Amino acid sequence: MSWWHRLLRRKQMEEQLNKELRYHLDQHAADLVAQGHDPAEARRLAKLALGGTEQVKEECRDARGTRWLEDLWQDCRYALRLLRQQPGFTVAALVTLALGIGATTVMFTVVNGVLLKPLPYLEPARLVILNEQTKKVTSPIWGNRWAFAYPNYLDCKRASRSLDLAAWRYSGGLVSEHGEAEYVDGFQVSSGLFSVLGVPLLRGRAFLPEEDQRGAGPVMIISYGLWQRLYGGSPAAVGRSLTLDGKPYTVVGITPAGFRLNADEADVFTPLGQDPSPSMQRRDRHPGIAVLARLRSGATLAQAQSELGLIGRQLAAQYPDSNEDRSFAAEPLRPDVGDVGSTLWLLLGAVSLVLLIACVNVASLLLARAVSRERELAMRAALGASRSRLVRQCLAESGVLGLCGGVLGVLFAADGIRPFVAFWPGSLPRAAEVHLDWHVLLFAFAVSLASGLLFGLAPALRAPAHDLEQALRAGARAVAGRSRRLHSGFVVSEIALAVVLLVSAGMLGRALLRLSSLDPGFDSRNVLAARMALSPDVLRNPAQIRAAWQDVLDHARRVPGVLSAAVVDTVPMREGNNPIGYWNTPAIPPADQQPLALATSVTPDYLKVMGIPLLKGRFFDDHDRIGSEHAVVIDDVLAARAFGGQDPVGKYLWLPNTDSPFLSGSAGPDAARVVGVVRHVRYWGLAADDQARVRAQFYYPFAQVPDPLMRRWSELMSIAVRTSIPPLNVVEPMRRELRGATGGAPGDQALYEVRTLGQLVNDSLARQRFLMLLFGIFAGLALLLACVGIYGVLAYVTGQRVPEFGVRMALGARAADVMQLVLRQSLRMILAGVVAGAIGAFVAGRLLVRLVQGVRAVEPLPFALMIAVLIAAALFASFLPARRASRVDPMIALRQE
Amino acid sequence: MAAKSDLPQGTLDLLILKVVALGPVHGYAIAQRLQQVSRHVVQVPQGSLYPALHRLENRGLLAADWKETETGREAKFYRLTRRGRAQLETEAASWQRLTEAVGLILGMAEGGAE
């Protein structure tokens, strides 16, 4: 019989035990009667011979080996009964715990989903990401890693024995169906991508190798989302024709819902090998593709790396012009979550502090109860319960409390997780992966149990061991002194934890205030920026593209409420930037020593639209066109860096021909005359710009972008308008107006990613604001819990001291003296907590400075302010018990003794 | 009545196994038999008999069935399992060795150890 079997059949076993012993007694008595004893006497003798029946039974039960479980069960039931008897205590403890555990579980769920879960591909540990690698660090932004050139990828794929390679790149375009044009994100993928990832398509098939090359029939895979949107999930969609950028494609497959590459979703997938642009076939000046691979069975990463090194050397020998010193690197594929990790760990840390405070609070509640139950425990000990048995009983109680709190906490977390993710500034990477699963439940279970044991330990260890009779005689009062130190310990640690959170919140608040008062460098009110996809028919011919953009601007200016309009490639504080090298003489240093500046391509009205002040010289006008001298306008940062104190207007900026947007085709660098200086714009966001690696900026005329680059540039351009009315009100009229603004060519075009500059400025502080808000909530919660804790402890301790106060007052102490006594005691605890907390806050502060942009080292003012708030709140919490103590009636108090 | 002696530690289990090895038997009979066979020298403390039986059952050395006795009442009859029999043999052998050794030492001629 296994132990659980024995446990389940406990009742039956009990009966059998009784029956067995009864038989023994009866038989023995019968024998004794046969020997001539009187029946009653025989029974007595038989019982005597057996020893105490109950004792024998106990020993038999012990022999079963399931004793501890039965005890645990009994303890848990007893604990539940006790909790039911004291609803006030139970509710207070459970709410505190549920909040603490719930908040911690929410944070862990997010951390688990975003940071800990493996990628949703087959055997993600065998997937690697490949990059080109140069010997020299050539760019301060990307180091020595580069995106792959398509021919290099093909060569690696052919040559590699240890890796199955696949490639992809971002694309997108206008999908037209039912006469509506819609801009959708897309990926160009190689034929093997889905099989390398181990993701089966929902319907249809992946691309065939023969479809993954130029001249093959146009085929397309669409996302689950687009399938639902366009075809209502009809199975007949596979095989249908869908128009992308004016070209009909045959839909051959549908991806499973939620399929992502590099954490991004897209609606259309086209074969990478069919990309028509000539630059795709180049090994230099290529558009760049992402390459990933799966290790073949038996191959190791090290093998793959050395093999790639070999292939790199062969290609370098074969194509010295482009591939000299160029090799290939393989690294394990990891989820790309940007810098969200630090924020998440920070929040998990903060929320754990709140949970700790909650635990301390419940511990002090339990301790107060344990002290008043001292007598009960002493009685149990006197009746033969061992100390370990009593400790186990106390721990069972707190364990039950912890688990109940945990269950409530998980319910709370299950409700709280969606709003939290939705509330995340921007979009949380891998948000789809964030949900309760068994990892989270296991975590919540462990946390509840651990906190149960944590706050139960102190009271449990107080279970009486010796001095029983003293405890029994004196009752609770005489031993109160012993617990006072523990109680103060609780208060001190609560205050310390609260100080850490409050000071952190204060630092974040201070940083947010400072950052929001910064000038972005442009006037963000009433400006709208939207990306614009020109009609595919327009994009065929550079002259037509120029005409179309002119037409777009003319139409946009005609929209009521629009004051001025401009076309621009990269908008401040939005994704996308174009850092290129520059120098102030034609003798340009090598690429890895060139300073970088952000280049922005604009039309003449850009300054007017953005409200950027012109400091010197002029901005562009319609005379800056192809054929006229290359003109640039620089910001004051670049002016200071490149020309020092000299007047930059009229001087030349030299751009290396690998980077230059003017593409003059000369062997040396392109020269551009500086025609004006404008104010610096906080391009990287209010918080991030100060620490940004590339701060200098210059502008160049869109009209001087040469024909070969026109199509590529047009795919990136946005339109920006300044309005006289709230900018979102012009969105719909502008959409209608721009649909046909194609400069005479047929076709549809669309606006997408519509943002106001106000939103962008606001969003650039979203993380700081979000952290500040959460830390504020946590700090508030911590303050509240700490105050409740102080109140509880003081109320309890002063309650214990009532007779003492009675004596003092009988001997002549006034009410004010007693009050002072209590307040002084509380102040001592508070100050000790503040000192301990200040040390912790200092450490936490350094962490914040490192992890959150814009936060400066601990400043004395917010620090002092937060501590003042805390002391005030804590004193207020101690005031009530103090006043109660001062109103003690000496007569009543003394009679209590 | 002869002088009674306490059982050395651990021997109760061995004795119980031996008695049960003779055939299925209930608790009371085990106590009786131990007393009779040892001519009342071994006084089995009845209070520790049952915990010992339950412990042996728990360890899988004994198995138990409820059967009717000759008086027509149901009693719990213990019998030896295969593991119990093996245990009995090893323990009996080691007991034998021990008592022989002790006997040898006690039987030494005085002054024989020089």
Task: Describe what you observe in this structure.
- The complex is a heterodimer of chains A (897) and B (114).
- Chain A is of the alpha+beta class and 897 residues long.
- Chain A folds into 4 domains: 3-65, no CATH class; 124-332, no CATH class; 341-517 and 766-896, no CATH class; 535-748, no CATH class.
- The longest helix of chain A has 37 residues, at 387-423.
- Chain A is elongated and about 130 Å long.
- Chain A starts with a helix and ends with a helix.
- Chain B has a single domain, classed as Arc Repressor Mutant, subunit A, CATH 1.10.10.
- Chain B has a 3-stranded antiparallel β-sheet with strand order 1-3-2.
- Chain B has 114 residues and is an alpha+beta fold.
- The model of chain B has no long low-confidence stretch (mean pLDDT 81).
- Chain B is built from 4 helices and 3 strands.
- The longest helix of chain B is centred in the C-terminal third of the chain and has 25 residues, at 82-106.
- At the A-B interface, helix 2 and helix 4 of A face helix 2, helix 3 and strand 3 of B.
